[in-house]
């Protein structure tokens, strides 16, 4: 350790916000199940109750939410539509599958973005990229197969969570260029305003119970997932390399599995744990690979 390196205690303390953010996000599926609304309605309240605070934080940080180029605003709102559909699909899946599966498949956007990057670069994976893809496919096959053994509903729940991961990847892709015009919190605020509208419409079309009789689960969900979880991760993305972020991500399925066992009696067998490890490893490798990708070549129109 050089004289410029922080002491071990300081390094451990610096990890606390990252771990706290992941733990807060991992509690989200539990709170969705506790809510006495429908799953999509719980998603609406998650975003709607946090929305004023997102705009307030953006304003306090001096981040613009007006005077932005129209194209950037449209991209962010389109991203918000994807995020709203992501939350709707994920919350429906949470009700049918195990919490650990829901968290893993809901984070599948990292692997999907990596594959999308290969398509844009028009090249095949190499080295660790192949390892990530193979681990993701093998782990997913194990978890999906185990869910199908349990029940068809569990299998469908997994598929809804995988769809959520795909929609979240679309959300991130749409916001990629718009981030140059917006700050982190203003992106969350403007995109969430579109997500609220989508979640309201989907909840009404589904005919779900909309108004909570017990507000505690949805208020805690909005605070823990949309403000604390997202906020601490936004902070951590600037403070840590992608490998550390990816490894910390593994706390989410671990916490979700523990909650599923204690609160809902969801027991994981060794084969389930193997699938979780494989998919979790793929998520870590995907985050590292995306960060190390060379810039995309500019292709001139023909």
Structure characteristics:
302 residues; 13 helices; mainly alpha; 78% helix
Helix and strand pattern: HHHHHHHHHHHHH
How can the largest sheet be summarized? none
Distance between the termini: 54 Å
Mean pLDDT: 80
Compute the CA-based radius of gyration: 19 Å
Number of helices: 13
Give the helix/strand layout.
Layout (H helix, E strand, L loop, with lengths): L7 H19 L1 H7 L4 H22 L9 H25 L4 H8 L2 H13 L6 H23 L1 H27 L5 H23 L9 H24 L2 H8 L1 H14 L5 H23 L10
Helix pairs in contact: 1-10, 1-12, 2-10, 3-4, 3-9, 3-10, 4-8, 4-9, 5-8, 5-12, 6-8, 6-13, 7-8, 7-13, 11-13
Characterization of the model:
- By secondary structure, this protein is mainly alpha-helical.
- The protein has helices at 8-26, 28-34, 39-60, 70-94, 99-106, 109-121, 128-150, 152-178, 184-206, 216-239, 242-249, 251-264, 270-292.
- α3 (39-60) packs antiparallel against α9 (184-206) and α7 (128-150) runs antiparallel to α13.
- The longest helix has 27 residues, at 152-178.
Please outline what is shown here.
This protein has 302 residues and is mainly α.
């Amino acid at each position: 350790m050089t004289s410029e390196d922080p002491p071990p205690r300081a390094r451990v303390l610096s990890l606390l916000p990252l771990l706290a953010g992941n733990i807060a996000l991992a509690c989200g599926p539990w709170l969705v199940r506790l809510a006495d609304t429908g799953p999509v309605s719980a998603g609406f309240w998650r975003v709607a109750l946090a929305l004023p605070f997102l705009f307030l934080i953006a304003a306090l940080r001096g981040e613009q939410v007006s005077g932005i180029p129209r194209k950037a605003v449209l991209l962010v709102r389109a991203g918000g539509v994807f995020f709203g559909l992501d939350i709707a699909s994920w919350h429906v899946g949470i009700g049918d599958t195990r919490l650990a599966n829901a968290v893993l498949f809901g984070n599948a956007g990292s692997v999907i973005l990596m594959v999308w990057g290969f398509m844009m670069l028009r090249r095949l994976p190499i080295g660790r990229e192949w390892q990530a893809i193979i681990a993701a496919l093998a782990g997913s096959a194990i978890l999906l197969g185990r869910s199908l053994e349990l029940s068809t509903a569990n299998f469908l729940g997994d598929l809804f969570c995988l769809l959520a991961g795909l929609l979240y990847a679309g959300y991130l892709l749409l916001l990629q260029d718009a981030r140059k015009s917006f700050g982190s919190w203003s992106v969350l605020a403007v995109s969430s305003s579109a997500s609220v509208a989508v979640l309201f419409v989907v909840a009404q079309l589904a005919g779900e119970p909309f108004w909570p009789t017990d507000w505690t689960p949805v208020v805690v969900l909005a605070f823990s997932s949309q403000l604390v979880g997202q906020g601490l991760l936004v902070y951590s993305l600037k403070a840590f390399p992608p490998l550390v972020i990816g490894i910390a991500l593994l706390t989410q399925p671990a916490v979700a599995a523990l909650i599923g066992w204690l609160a809902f009696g969801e027991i994981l067998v060794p084969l389930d744990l193997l699938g979780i490890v494989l998919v979790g490893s793929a998520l870590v490798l995907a985050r590292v690979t995306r960060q190390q990708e060379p810039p995309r070549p500019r292709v001139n129109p023909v």
